[in-house]
Design brief:
- The protein has about 300 residues and is mostly beta strands.
- The protein folds into two domains: about 170 residues, Thiol Ester Dehydrase, Chain A; about 120 residues, OB fold (Dihydrolipoamide Acetyltransferase, E2P), CATH 2.40.50.
- It is about 15% helix and about 40% strand.
- The chain contains four helices and 16 strands.
- Strands 3, 4, 5, 6, 7 and 8 form a six-stranded antiparallel β-sheet that branches.
- It starts with a strand and ends with a strand.
Length: about 300
């Protein structure tokens, strides 16, 4: 492969010549003569504080200052972006893309605060490509860390600096799909899994106070009795809460996928996959219906099928 690269197992391997080409961009501008789209203002401060749960009195009233951690927010270009980004930064990105480092992830940032920002302050900024790392291998893949430093000013005075680091990398090739991990079955929950094998979802019921409980436990967490029987769930439920799993990948799973905390019609809640709808269409309150999904020759699991309606 040309341009100072070697290829091993389908992934680029940087040579010294290629790395020197990357380092030539250190010290070059990443953004020039940038200007905040809005001056520092009360509505944005209020929204930020509400989102962060920060009720500090310094952020309200006639003498309000902006939370220091909003430093980068005043420089962001929104969906339309900024015209301040430099040609050098685009060239560096294109060079990495052309070498096979086509994926990107933000890894961390560092901020330094030099003076408070007050309502009405006009924001300007410049940024420089501070460093490009040697090739590094991570769980995501092999690539280069690129660090930019942004100097944020108000009325020409330096208000703070923001260092932002990304990893431009070639993704690790996925390993063949592996076997799904086995559930841990013990004397306390073996009745539940016996029910699953018969395509029934069994909920424990206390033999004394008749409180339903899930997951299965050796004793009642309401009255302490160790007497119990079971009731069969109807299979109807709603999504009480959920997460979408993106990372880290595991050979037996295929992210992204939705994992829901399902509130059953009987009042107990259980965790399982939400299937039948795209992961980004799952919503709190969505009605779901129990079904049993075979994941390999020896294992079926209860999952919940949602509907987009």
């Amino acid at each position: 492969m040309s341009d100072g690269l070697q290829v091993s197992d389908g992934l680029p391997q940087s040579t010294g010549d290629f790395y020197e080409r990357l380092r030539a961009y250190e010290g070059k501008a990443a953004a020039e003569a940038g200007r905040g789209k809005d001056p520092v203002n009360e509505p944005m401060i209020r929204h930020w504080c509400e989102a962060m749960g920060d009720a500090h009195p310094a952020y309200t009233g006639p003498d309000a200052v902006a939370p220091p951690t909003m430093l980068q927010a005043w420089t962001m270009g929104g969906l339309a972006g900024h015209t301040a980004r430099s040609a050098a930064y685009d060239e560096l990105t294109a060079l990495l893309d052309g070498a096979g480092y086509t994926s990107v992830v933000a890894t961390d940032c560092e901020q330094e605060y030099l003076r408070p920002l007050r309502v009405g302050d006009e924001i300007t900024f410049d940024a420089v490509i501070e460093s490009v790392s040697e090739e590094k291998t991570t769980k995501l893949g092999t690539g280069h860390f690129v660090t930019t430093r942004m100097d944020v000013r108000t009325n020409g005075e330096l208000a703070g600096t923001h260092r932002f680091r990304i990893l431009k990398y070639a993704p690790v090739q996925r390993k063949p799909r592996g076997e799904r991990p086995r559930p841990v079955i013990n004397r306390d929950n073996e009745g539940f899994w016996a029910g699953v094998r018969e395509h029934t979802l069994l909920i424990q019921r206390c033999g004394e106070c008749e409180v339903l409980r899930f997951p299965w436990l050796p004793g009642c967490n309401a009255c302490g009795s160790d007497a119990w029987d079971t009731v069969e769930a109807s299979g109807e439920g709603t999504v009480y809460s959920y997460v979408v799993m993106h990372h880290p990948p595991f050979p037996a799973f295929d992210p992204p996928y939705a994992v829901g905390l399902i509130e059953l019609a009987e009042g107990v809640r259980m965790v399982s996959n939400v299937v039948g709808v795209p992961h980004d269409k799952v919503r709190i309150g969505m009605p779901v219906r129990l079904e049993f999904q075979r994941v390999d020759a020896d294992l079926e699991i209860p999952v919940f099928r949602g509907g987009e309606g």
